[in-house]
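Handout, page 2. Input:
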Amino acid sequence: MVGCGQHVPATLAREVLCLDHFIEQAFTRMRKALELCQQCRPLDRHVLDWLLADADFALRSLAFDGCGHTPAQRAKLLELVLGLANLQEYLRHHSVEVKLAD
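Output:
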């Protein structure tokens, strides 16, 4: 992110994001996906792929890198995992259309 001076972990080097900006973007994707679901609008398959990758990263980060994060970052990662699990449960119990092609 432009103007951000925080360390970019090796696991986020490809996205060129610090952990805080990753968390912020993941929450934004999650909120947008939930909003689309609640409006009975289709989700893009790529959005679902991003969300799955977000959950995977958050869990791995907590498991392997957790000691290197601040308490606030760990709390936000846990909140993200919980939010993504709730979104998955929503998708499981509701009929949501997934767009396969752009």
